[in-house]
Amino acid sequence: MSGATITAGEVAGWLRGFAVAVAEAKDDLTALDSAIGDADHGINMDRGFQAVLAKLPTFPQDDVGAILKGTGMTLISTVGGASGPLYGSFFLQLGTATAGKADISVEDFAGALDNGIARVQGLGKAEPGDKTMLEALLPAQVAIHTAAEAGESPAEALAAGAAAAEEGMLATIPLVARKGRASYLGERSAGHQDPGATSTHLLLKAAADAWSRA
What we know:
The structure is a single chain. The chain is an all-alpha fold. Helices cover about 70% and strands about 5% of the residues. The protein has eight helices and two strands. Strands 1-2 form a two-stranded antiparallel ribbon.
């Protein structure tokens, strides 16, 4: 790795790392979801990313956008519940923003993240404080943009993003859910960590881990 860019091969490595992280956290994610949701988040995410692992070698290996779009399409077709459309559309938008690029800069990644988050917000109609995956995504977005503007490397930017996502994830515990299945519980949803924010933190941590080793 040059230090200034993220290659298509490194993006594929990030996805493989996230698939491993999801498999390891499957039971924990499902336990979180059993408290305030349908008790299937870990199972669904693991199913989706095992499918991504199987298809990853068939994606163009020199095109960041093609890898990310292929991931999104695979998730939409294999993941049930709300996670499939949300994560799938998120990756499709990342892919659209990086189409045809053999490598991307931190600024490219930050811009792609903007597109992905906008799509998630559009689909879920969620706002900050609703106790959703946005609680991890939005702080990470700010941290990665700040790092990009400061000229930091991908490794530094993603480490900052992962740390911000972790803080956002933990901040979901006292929140009352206002979207999704968890919102049916009303005040009883408080005191539980949001599973979507948790898997989002894992996604960004996998990116940070991948680029810290590159």
